[in-house]
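Contributing new records

If you add data, match the layout below exactly. Sequence lines come first and carry their own label; structure lines follow with theirs. Keep one chain per record. Anything else will be rejected by the validation script.
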Amino acid sequence: MKRFDERDTIFARFSYKEGSPEYEDYYKRNPDIKEADDKMRQPPFPYGEGTATFTPLNSAIAGATFRFLADVSKFSEGEINPQKVEIEPAVITKKLKGLAKFYGAQLVGVTKLKEEYYYSHRGRKAENYGEEVHNIHKYAIVFATEMDKDMINRAPLIGEGIEVTKGYVNTAVIGMILSYYLRELGYNARNHMDGNYLLIAPLVAEAAGLGQIGRSGILITKKYGKRVRLGVVTTNLELLIDEREDFGITQFCEICGNCAMVCPGKAIPKENRKEIDGALRWKIEPENCFDIWKKVGTDCGVCISTCPFSQGVEGDLVEKMKGQPELMERIFKEFKEKHGTRTFNSSPHEWL
């Protein structure tokens, strides 16, 4: 599987300032998208003035959160205690999972890393633009924190965006604690968090058994659906791994397609998967998605709230649905009867 270049992500391209070295290099190599990307970088910006949901008080909450995350991301790596503590894989695996949940994770898994889970080159920040990613660790501890259903059901309004940024903070803190702890024990460890990933978190989470990637390119978990944020800590310390789990999401997404139908930017394909780089998958149009972010002023989140699994599917049905299209049809029908095309509610907090 081909490694993805972080420079090609919409977030990296959005950050390239005209006339900068990274701007000149990127569009020298990709002249065909320069005009469209230049337009993309024109205001308004997500959470900024001129967008449909902007308010000076509430939009600043998300802006402040992203600024905080940017400030602390430099602590994702650090000094390693030269006095290494010898510890059995079973013992440390159990302790790391317990610690992650103690600090607020709902789901935790461990997987052995493959090279293709990592970006080939960095591209999000000017100081490391174009660097090849070589520091590949052997194992990953990946964890998910739940996002509040009532807040997510405000999508695409500002309440949804505030909840998403809170999820990034929660996973960043958990990742910091785990990575600092492992380095204190004498082992190299890195926290992968918002704005400072070296890898693609949904791929790692799927490999560790936390869920499956669906039609919209987002991880779907059994209990919380898409209402999770992901964090990853990587290390070379020997750990016990979890198994990937196929509980039927690919087939369910082929039957459902609700996220594609309601996507305001038509970024999610309505047709079935196609072969891309040797693998069958759905191809998302990130430019269309980001265009909606710029218009509404949040990260939208409509595809998260409109997934039947985000609203909750009865546990025994989830366990039984694999290979049972009739049961999948029933799950989707019951979702539509209860929620319609999508669920939307008033703000759950009086301060919003």
